[in-house]
Each structure stands twice: as structure tokens, then as C-alpha cells.
Amino acid sequence: KELTLADFKGKLVVVNLWATWCAPCIKEMPSLDRMNARLAPQGLALLAISQDRGGAKTVAPFIEKLGLKSLPVYLDPMGAVQRALGVRGLPTTVVFDGAGRELGRFEGDANWDSPDARELLTHFLNLIRDTRPPLVKTGG
Asked: How far is CA 35 from CA 62, 83, 90, 94, in A?
């Protein structure tokens, strides 16, 4: 099923473009898995989008081998997302707000469950929560 950013409206969306043959990607995958386990319940939507041309038959054994449990993996074997976002290399991570506006991007591998990364993503999550309309109780 094809998805767009609109499918994740209201969430902080972290798009990570990676491939099984990319050494820096492999290095950062466990931290993405831990980051997602920690922040998904707070409204983060992680989209780990594989750029492998082999699709699921290449990616599924790789995910299993690394023991990644909470990493939602998406497939883009034709590289459409990479081209649409103007990505120059892998891994690249792009962060979008709840309305689909780009907040920032990081080229290269990162430790996504480090205190600094958690603080930044939590800050963005709080901004998204603060912009939601308040609930209004009506009636008596």
C-alpha cells in the first residue's frame, strides 16, 4: 500500500532512508529501533524506508538478523522517496511536523536514542502537541 505524509497527519514523522548495503545505515539501525520503542507512544511516527532494489526479500532477513523489534520498515525499491526529498546519500533522516512541513534533516548516521536526539525529538513532539486545538467540553 502506498502511503503519503498525509496518512500521518498530526504526528511527528521521522523519515529515515537507508539500505542493507550501507554500512553507516547498519550502524544506526539499532538506535532507530530503540528510539521508536521509546517515542512512538508519545506520537512519533518513524518511517524507516529501505532503498534496496530487492524489496522485502532483501530487507526482511536483514531486519531479523539485526533483531530489530519496533522498527516499522517501508519499502521504496524504485527510490521515489529519495528523489522526491532530494536526498544526496544514505542514510538521511528527515523530520516533518504534524502538517507535513520539513523541520530538519540529518545526512549520515546518528545515535537516535542519545540524550541529545531524544531531547530534540521530544521538543518537536511537544510543539506538535501544543498546536493541537484544545478539547472543549460542551453541555452540562
From this structure: 19, 26, 19, 15
